[in-house]
Amino acid sequence: MTEIWQGLVRAIELIVTLDAEVIEITWRSLTISVIATVLASVLCLPLGALVHFRRFRGKRLLISLVQTLYSVPTVVIGLLVFILLSRSGPLGGLNLLFTPAAMVVGQVVLIIPILLGLTISALSSVDRTIADTARSLGASGPQTAVLVLTEARFAVTAAVIMAFGRAISEVGIAIMVGGNIRGFTRVLTTAISLETSRGDVELSMALGLILLLIALAVNLTLNRIQR
Fold it and tell me: Which of 156, 150, 79 is nearest to 116 (CA)?
């Protein structure tokens, strides 16, 4: 018990004194996850609106498939991205493997189902009379979609925040396509795993506390939006 308490005190000291390595790892984690969330949002918001407003055969099956992918294991996504970006893969010529860019790609693939599915659900919850009224007043398809997205902005924002939380807390993709390279691709989750195996409990606890604080901030933001 004493060792745990001493490790916690040392971890807090590392955070309070703004230890260079702790700040570097935290900043890299936030940067990669924010970029991935923004890219996925730019892709999924219009795509979700397209799926919601269009009627086509297999729509329900598509939505069910997207929702099924919510819980896909991160190591499966990591394996897929690794194969795509490896030298023998179709995107091997880009030389992205074991770089932050590869980690961004992996996180984008991971959170696309979450963002897409929750965006469709958010749009479905908006009263249909809003879209019907907009069309009757001469609004175009894109204008109607923007109006409905605006009405569902709180639910859509919550979806984006949830996607960010999912991205920053994953570890399988980061290890498989990032390589956990110190000063280059090491992020909070991979650093915690590595430092724990090396016996550096203080640094692991410091990084874990930061990850918990980020998770707390995400949850508080979600609760405020939902209220």
Answer: 156
Give the span between the Cα atoms of 175 and 103, in whole angstroms: 9
What's the CATH number where 142 sits?
1.10.3720.10
CB neighbour list of residue 154: distance below 8 Å, 6 or more residues apart: 225, 226
Please give the backbone phi and psi of residue 181, each rounded to the nearest 5 degrees, phi first. Answer: -85, 125
Query: Got the DSSP string for 82-104?
Result: HHHHSTTSTTGGG--TTSHHHHH
Q: 82 versus 1: which is more confidently predicted?
A: 82
Specify the number of domains making up the chain.
1
Could you tell me which residues come within 8 angstroms of residue 12 by beta carbon, excluding any fewer than 6 positions away?
206, 209
pLDDT for position 3: 59
